[in-house]
Inverse folding.
C-alpha cells in the first residue's frame, strides 16, 4: 500500500484499528459470559483503539516516509542531475521494456563544445548543456524521451514518428538551439548542434539504432556541423546551412 497523504495515513490506521477491535470483540464474546460483555468490551475496545491507532499511525507515517525516499531515489536514478532529462540507463530501460516501440532516434551533439569550456570555463559549459536540454525537452512531445547520453551529447526517441516527421522535428530543434543563446555571468554564448537520426522498427536492436544515429551525426559534423543528417541518406541529401541561409 502506498501512503501519499495524511488522509491515506489515517484511513489506513482506522482500517487496521477496526480490524483489531473486531477480533478483540469476538474473543471477548467467546471467553466471557454475556452479563460481563458490556464492561469487558468497553475496557478492551477503548484500550485496543487507543493503542492500535497510535501504533498504526506511527507505522503508517514511517511507511509514507519510506515511499517518499524510494520515489526520490528512483527519480535520481532516472533523471540526469545537471539537466533533469532522462539518464542513459533509464533511456535503455524504457526501450528494452517496450520492444514494440516504433519511432526515430536523434543523436544531438553540441558543436565545438570543448571550445566553450576552454574559453569560458566548465561552469559556462554546464550552463550551455542545461540550456540545450531545456530547449530539447520543451519542444518534443509528451510521449518522446530526451536523455543525456554523455557529456554534451543527447539522445531523443521520437515515438511513433516517421522519418519525414523526425527530420522536420530535428530541423526545428537545430534552429531553436541556434537562436537561443546562453547568458552566463554577463557573457552571451551562442552554440549550434549537429543531429543524426535513425529509424527504429518494432523489436529492432537499440544499440544498432544508436549506432546508426551516431554514424549519421558524425557525417553531419564532417559535412560542416550545424545540420541534420539521417542514416541512409547520401551526403548530397544533407542540406548545407550556408546554402539554406
Amino acid at each position: 500500500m502506498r501512503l501519499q497523504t495524511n488522509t491515506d495515513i489515517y484511513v489506513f490506521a482506522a482500517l487496521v484499528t477496526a480490524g483489531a477491535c473486531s477480533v478483540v470483540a469476538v474473543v471477548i464474546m467467546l471467553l466471557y459470559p454475556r452479563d460481563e460483555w458490556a464492561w469487558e468490551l468497553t475496557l478492551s475496545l477503548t484500550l485496543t483503539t487507543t493503542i492500535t491507532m497510535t501504533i498504526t499511525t506511527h507505522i503508517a507515517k514511517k511507511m509514507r516516509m519510506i515511499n517518499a525516499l524510494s520515489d526520490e531515489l528512483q527519480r535520481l536514478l532516472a533523471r540526469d542531475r545537471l539537466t533533469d532529462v532522462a539518464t542513459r540507463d533509464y533511456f535503455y530501460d524504457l526501450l528494452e521494456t517496450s520492444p514494440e516501440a516504433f519511432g526515430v532516434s536523434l543523436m544531438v551533439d553540441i558543436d565545438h563544445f570543448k571550445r566553450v569550456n576552454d574559453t569560458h570555463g566548465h561552469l559556462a559549459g554546464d550552463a550551455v548543456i542545461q540550456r540545450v536540454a531545456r530547449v530539447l525537452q520543451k519542444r518534443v512531445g509528451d510521449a518522446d524521451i530526451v536523455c543525456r547520453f554523455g557529456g554534451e551529447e543527447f539522445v531523443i526517441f521520437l515515438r511513433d514518428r516517421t522519418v519525414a516527421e523526425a527530420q522536420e522535428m530535428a530541423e526545428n530543434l537545430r534552429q531553436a538551439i541556434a537562436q537561443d543563446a546562453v547568458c552566463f555571468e554577463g557573457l552571451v554564448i551562442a552554440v549550434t548542434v549537429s543531429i543524426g537520426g535513425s529509424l527504429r522498427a518494432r523489436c529492432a536492436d537499440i544499440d544498432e539504432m544508436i549506432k546508426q544515429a551516431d554514424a549519421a551525426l558524425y557525417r553531419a559534423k564532417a559535412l560542416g556541423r550545424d545540420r541534420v543528417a539521417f542514416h541512409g541518406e547520401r551526403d548530397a541529401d544533407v542540406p548545407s546551412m550556408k546554402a539554406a541561409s
Q: What stands out?
A: Strands lie at 103-110, 145-150, 153-159, 182-184, 187-189, 193-200, 228-230. The chain has a mean pLDDT of 87. The chain is about 60% helix and 15% strand. The helical segments are 6-31, 37-78, 88-96, 113-120, 122-139, 163-179, 206-222, 241-244.
